[in-house]
Design a protein that fits this description.
The chain has three helices and four strands; from the N terminus they run βββαβαα. With 118 residues, it is of the alpha/beta class.
Length: 118
């Protein structure tokens, strides 16, 4: 049995170290199909230590469980799952994501300085 049945193999020749981010969607809104939040793993089920794992949880937050150790950035709008006003978004960031945010001057210029940081 394949230890990672929902994984997609990397294209031949792809160097894992060249990957900046793994982008996941936790839940598809119109169908309700949900995927587990997991860091990418190799065929031996070892976590690939390259790039940030970023999860769009807009339709899942507050409704679908997740492990914070499996993502570097988990962001969502509380409007759907928690019934909050529209226009607000929340992100849970790992120390690695915070370091990347501070190191990227373009990222800092796109987002408000009112964001909560550790």
């Amino acid at each position: 049995m394949d230890p990672a049945p929902n994984s997609t193999p990397l294209r031949a020749g792809t160097k894992v170290a060249s990957i900046d981010a793994w982008a996941l969607v936790q839940n598809e809104t119109s169908t309700g199909v949900a995927a587990p939040v997991r860091r990418p793993r190799d065929r031996f089920w070892c976590i690939l230590r390259a790039g940030l794992t970023i999860v769009d949880a807009t339709s899942a937050a507050g409704c679908v469980a997740w492990d914070p150790l499996e993502a570097d950035a988990y962001y969502f709008s509380p409007q759907k799952g928690l019934g909050a006003d529209g226009g607000l978004w929340i992100a849970a960031l790992s120390p690695a994501a915070l370091r990347a945010r501070r190191a990227d001057r373009h990222f800092a210029s796109l987002h408000s300085r009112h964001a909560l940081t550790a």
